[in-house]
Amino acid sequence: MSIDRRYIISGSNDKTVKIFCLEKKETPVNIKNAHENWILSVVVSPDGRYILSGSRDASIKVYDLESHKPIDHFKDIHDGKKEKYIFLKLIILDWINSIAVTPDSQYVVSGSSDEKIKIHEIKGGKCVYDSQDKIKGSVSSVAISPDGKFVVCGTGSSIAILHIKNEGETYNFTQPKINLINDAHEGIFLFLQSSIYNIYP
Predict the structure, then answer these.
(1) Whole domain around residue 132: which residue ranges?
(2) What is the DSSP letter of 90?
(3) Helix or strand run (H / E) with residue 176
(4) How far is CA 128 from CA 76, 109, 162, in A?
(5) 3-state secondary structure (DSSP) of residue 31
(6) Structural domain includes residue 155
(7) How many domains does the chain have?
(8) Concatenated DSSP letters for 130-151?
(9) DSSP string covering 49-85
(10) Which pLDDT score is estimated for 114?
(11) What is the pTM of this model?
(12) Measured between alpha carbons, how far is 191 from 96 in angstroms, rounded to an integer?
């Protein structure tokens, strides 16, 4: 949902992004074939300008919220080095399971089945952070604290907290400190409260 509560955005395994306008209560706008595979995560930027979608096709798409037109497409942003047999078929695990946008609407954080968190600039798609081998387990959920200082991700059994240096209005993504909370759950998706940064300073 957008911050102004005007829109609800949904993404589905039918590869479609739908935009519901709560004010007009009209038939939702369908962006068909938004991705080449299932859409696993959608988000509206805090400034209300963009829709972002993350997919099993290892890409993120950016749309203008008002015009519904595509703005950018970040392809193959997760490398899919992790592989797994699913129903006797070898699957490359590069799915983007969850995305979140920083409070200033400048960066998108993605969590993937390749056990990585990456942060990209929304304008241009430049990668400014790659967790590389610091996260253990497929990343199922990501969230950002309201002050933009923490990125939190959940895997099948652990929670990782990245401390991002926010220098005034400028983010510094160079080697952030990472805390791991192991064995937090057993295969349960992470639910994040907005006050996480008060709980874990």
Answers:
(1) 7-199
(2) E
(3) strand 170-181
(4) 15, 10, 14
(5) strand
(6) yes
(7) 1
(8) E-TTS--S---EEEE-TTSSEE
(9) -EEEEEETTS-EEEEETTT--EEEEE-S-S----EEE
(10) 85
(11) 0.79
(12) 18
